[in-house]
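Researcher: Good morning. I'm working through a list of sequences from a screen, and I'd like to move beyond sequence-only analysis. For each chain I'm collecting a predicted structure so we can compare shapes side by side. This is the next one on the list. No need for commentary yet; just the structure.
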Amino acid sequence: MIKEMQEFTPDWISPPSDTITDILEERDWTQVEFAKRMGMSKKQTNLMLNAKAPITYDTALKLESVIGSTAKFWLNREAQYRESLARKEELKKLNDWNDWVHKFPVRDLMNKGFLQNKRIDSKNKPYIVKELLRLFKVASPKEWESRYGNMQVAFRRTKEEQSDIGAITSWIRLGEISAEQRDGPKYDRNKFVRSLDAIRKLTKLSPKEFEPELQKLCCDSGVVLVFIPSIKNAHVSGVARWLNPHKPLIQLSSYGKYNDRFWFTFFHEAAHILLHNKNNVFLDEFDHSRLYSQEEIEADKWASDHLIPEKYTPEFLALTNRVAVLAFAKKLDIHPGIVVGRLQHEGIIDYSWMVDLKEKFDSSPYF
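Model: Good morning. Structure tokens for this chain:
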């Protein structure tokens, strides 16, 4: 997930002028004599020896002739010194940004391997801040706020409590990272519509059987599908969004993943891709307390109708027992758990009935 991070430069920082000064003392050269040998003015020499002027390529070549070693050595010495100064200044800034750490589910990200596992204390917070900046690929919390903090204006939510922006954007970012590692063709709407018919038939299979084919069918249609483990306080089971005008993303978590919820969530996100504004980020959770915008109503209906077509509604409403459910699912060529979940969701049967017909995906390596 992550690579070991180099610690910052210690407080002591030695400029290349320290090495030059030591050599001048060994040779008993004055600054005046050294300036003459270098062909530099007294002022230029003084600035360089006080580390107030950087060693240039021209100066490095002169030092090679006058002091010794190589121009590359002097340039590297200069570069290391300037980097050390920059890192020392950066450490000060990171310390100033320590409170930013508390915006994110840091411990959960550590446990999942996306951040290094360490104590969250004042000593380590600057390094945790640095890791978070690397995770989000931004230079400072200000850039994070501009890129991710303001993303919430594009959120279309199904639950009021989806307000932990740090947790939600962490989960979203992990999806982006996974998507960045995948290549595929541009989005083809017609091909995606056709693929959804084939995907519907996969509902009868186990995750081990359907996941590779599901990934392939989406990829061939130009849709990126990623499975990202749920993150504490994100409360999101699925996201539909466009990474760019030609690349839609469906991102699913393990949050409450029985097979009926999984498949409804997948087709719900697919509906957002097919039907709705590319500039929106649709955050979805499937439970009893949904906020019903027009877009969510449309996505719900599209997903419901795709799994159990509207023409079968009279037969569906007449289902009263296990045998009838199994026969109905076989007729529609879908998993019986999907039928049970729909019956439960619409209040036709109690949530405790026929639960054994639904499958939980805890064992799936993708979740």
